[in-house]
Design goal:
eight-stranded antiparallel beta sheet, six-stranded antiparallel beta sheet, 777 residues, mainly beta
């Protein structure tokens, strides 16, 4: 019984050996038994991967992090053991001395592999357990700085105008020891200790209270106090001790009402008012409240037209404007005014207690730093410290450094939220989509607003979505689909919003190629959006896995890639029309930064790279190619002016060609193998799975290809003849069209078609047609 088996695309990628008999699967006819150093294009073709071009050697192993300002300004950050180097598309950024630009990093190599990061313009926010959150700032092409984030007030609180700090009257609090502050200054003539709200003087052998009792604290400032005579004199504010100078009080009630006879009208001063001032810097960030200044005035319904309370305070360096807060009878202070002056008059303004001033507290006490970071709803989000693994901290909206406490809460106030799950699990990644999705080691969560309302500090909720769990530090977003590795490390799963269920669901992308993750785990991965939408993953054994993924076309095709060494880390950044894929590759114990060459798009193959750790010479014709010390003793493949040359062994960093050439690419060879699934035909007698079959010929549709062997096994593969009408002395041109290969293997139950390319030439396979004779059982 004759038959034909057509494989018109390869969009199922490499399939698990466990599927060798699953001929009923739709993916069976579009999959491969072996897909090594071939990648799958989105429209279905199998393409020999480009080689990796050498950029430079590294001081040691490194983790790679993308930094993308725009498509023209994108970088690959190399983070090693306490060092950082920056690479662009063509190689490392150079310092003034001509060597690679390098700065000190706060991270060890192990920490660098675990960091979580989120970028805003020229700043990369970084979180890692054991290291204070950092900002990596690009100040120039060759000027980068790490800056530890400090969660403190942007400005000091204002000081009332009747306080003065000078040589005689200001006493610096030198440093804290528990709750004890050492006070020094010539004004006292001795050392004093601020313990709680009381000021003590040190004598031998004990402390003596000198009755500088401080009545109460407000915000970060202690307000009222008295000395031995009971005079209001000394005022500790933050870490300075101020003495009242005798100037006019900073707050005073002005009563200008007159009786009909012109005499003063008596004021009914029955209500206590307390005022606080905050300062705002040029970016609108607000300081803590000042000390309170109190006065008695009329009740709010008893003010007369000429009554007001005047306030004055000292200006703060860096302040753009000031906000005034007011409380009645010691109640909650509420906002009443904003002014650019250092004085204000209160004409019986009612406070808005819905707006409060910030109280700055360290969100990560005792160096309990978070391990994950992202940006969501104009907020900087941290999550998962070691002691609080299920807690999320969100900054004030639009103010990434503000994690202060506001009372009362406003919609844009900072947020602290602890997830209530069935198990305690660490957050590994966070992704901002229509809501914020967080993957923990036990389950996946959605952080959003309640109902139809927008997300805010007063309208927030956390909802569990699935219980697969996640193992990698970060997830990858392809379009609107989240791709992550499950907590077992043996599954790559999607997470996508499903309208019908109004929740996030997904599928297992690795089930058809489970053998790729049965014994080894993914240690690093990245997403190369252009040109073929491929997720690249470095496996723990040094193999590079590729996953061509397009959810809208139901394409998920795995392929594996090998080199003479081990892939240790990968990173993709945009560059022009094609994203640059960087890799750290270990070869003979030395670590190199290499970049995958651009895709071959047809035409003259000269200058296109199909070798690893490759270098290209482009200049006057020459026979001597040098500068290859990193490949000493290695047999290299050579493409010279579009023609394949015989292999050479590099000695002294150089090789000699048979003939001079202008464009020469030299690198480590690799072999690309493609093997179909066992061919299958269905006839009148049903499936041919259990029948002996004989493949008489194979028709293959190529595009822009050279240097391929085809057979029913890799060992018996024969060269395809490419030369057509090229003139003598010229290499054959890349071929597009169909080639037929006649085979002569005896009938067997299981037959596959094998293609191999072991030359540095381009190959694209569009379809394979097997002409089969079925001989029975």
């Amino acid at each position: 019984m004759p038959g034909v088996s057509l494989q018109s695309n390869f969009t199922a990628g490499e399939l698990s050996p466990s599927l060798s008999a699953r001929v009923e699967l739709s993916k069976y006819n579009t999959g491969c038994r072996t897909l090594k150093n071939f990648l799958v294009q989105s429209h279905g073709g199998a393409v020999k991967r480009p080689g990796f071009e050498l950029l430079d050697a590294l001081p040691g192993e490194a983790a790679l992090v993308p930094f993308v300002f725009n498509r023209e300004q994108s970088y690959c950050l190399c983070l090693g053991e306490r060092w950082l180097r920056v690479a662009a598309h063509d190689g490392f950024i150079l310092a003034g001395d001509g060597g690679p630009y390098e700065i000190e990093s706060p991270y060890t190599l192990e920490q660098a592999r675990q960091i979580s990061y989120a970028q805003s313009a020229d700043v990369l926010f970084i979180a890692c357990h054991g290291v204070r959150p950092q900002k990596l700032k690009r100040l120039n092409h060759d000027h980068w700085e790490f800056e530890a984030m400090v969660f403190e007030a942007p400005l000091s609180p204002p000081v009332w105008s009747d306080y003065a700090a000078n040589e005689d009257n200001a006493f610096q609090l030198a440093y804290p020891a528990s709750s004890v502050y050492y006070v020094t200054g010539s004004g006292f003539g001795a050392r004093y200790y601020l313990v709680g709200y009381n000021l003590y003087r040190k004598t031998d052998p004990a402390w003596i209270a000198v009755n500088h009792s401080l009545a109460y604290a407000s915000g970060n400032a202690f307000t009222r106090g008295h000395d031995e005579e009971g005079n209001l004199t000394y005022f500790p504010i933050n870490e300075d001790l101020y003495r009242r100078t005798g100037a006019a009080l900073p707050v005073a009630f002005i009563h200008e009402a007159r009786m009909s006879d012109g005499s003063d009208s008596p004021a009914q001063r029955t209500t206590s008012y307390t005022y606080h001032i905050t300062a705002l810097d040029a970016e609108g960030r607000e300081s803590p409240m000042s000390a309170g200044a109190s006065i008695t005035g009329p009740a709010s319904n008893n003010w007369q037209g000429a009554d007001y309370i005047k306030l004055s305070w000292l200006g703060i360096e860096g302040a753009r404007e000031y906000r005034v807060y007011k409380s009645v009878f010691g109640g909650r202070p509420g906002y009443v005014a904003t002014t650019v002056d250092t004085a204000w008059q209160d004409h019986n303004v009612l406070p808005s207690i819905s707006e409060g001033a910030p109280k700055y507290e360290n969100p990560f006490p005792s160096d309990d730093f978070p391990g994950a970071v992202c940006l969501f709803e104009q907020r900087l989000v941290f999550a998962s410290s070691l002691n609080r693994p299920q807690t999320i901290w969100m900054s004030k909206s639009g103010d990434y450094g503000n994690f202060a406490v506001y009372d009362p809460l406003a919609a844009d106030s900072p947020i602290e939220l602890t997830l209530a799950g069935g198990e305690i699990s660490t957050a590994n990644w966070m992704v901002s989509l229509r809501s914020m999705i967080m993957g923990t080691s036990g389950m996946e969560w959605e952080i959003s607003g309640r109902g139809e309302s927008a997300f805010s500090a007063m309208n927030k909720k956390a909802t569990g979505q699935s219980y697969w769990g996640s193992s990698l530090k970060r997830a990858i977003v392809v379009g609107n689909v989240i791709v992550h590795v499950s907590s077992s490390g043996s599954q790559v799963r999607t997470l996508q919003y499903e309208f019908a269920a109004d929740s996030y669901g997904g599928m297992d992308l690795s089930i058809m190629a489970a053998h790729l993750l049965e014994k080894e785990r993914i240690v690093d991965w990245t997403y190369q959006k252009n040109p073929d939408s491929i997720i690249w993953a470095a496996r723990s054994d040094g193999v590079l896995l590729g996953l061509t993924f397009q959810a809208e076309h139901q394409i998920s095709a795995w392929h594996q890639h090998h080199t003479q060494g081990k892939f240790k880390a990968v990173c993709s950044v945009p560059h022009g029309f094609e994203d640059s894929l960087f890799a750290v590759v270990e070869r003979d114990g030395i670590f190199f930064l290499e970049r995958m060459a651009g895709r071959y798009k047809g035409g003259d193959p000269a200058g296109h790279v199909f070798a690893d750790s490759a270098m290209t010479y482009n200049g006057e014709p020459t026979k001597i190619i040098s500068g290859m010390e990193h490949m000493n003793g290695k047999s290299v493949c050579i493409m010279a002016d579009g023609a394949v040359n015989a292999p050479r062994v590099v000695e002294g960093g150089m090789i000699e060609l048979d003939h001079p050439a202008s464009v020469v690419t030299v690198g480590l060879p690799y072999t690309a193998d493609l093997e179909t699934m066992p061919v299958e035909v269905v006839g009148g007698d049903g499936s041919s799975v259990a029948m002996k079959k004989q493949i008489n010929a194979v028709d293959i549709i190529f595009r822009d290809s050279l240097g391929v062997k085809v057979g029913l096994s890799f060992d018996s593969a024969q060269d395809v003849r490419w030369r057509t009408n090229e003139p003598y002395g010229k290499p054959p041109a890349p071929f597009s069209g169909m080639k037929q290969i006649v085979t002569n293997k005896l009938a067997e139950n299981i037959l596959t078609v094998c293609l191999r390319s072991d030359l540095p030439t381009p190959v694209t396979v569009l379809a394979i047609v097997s002409r089969i004779a079925v001989n029975g059982r």
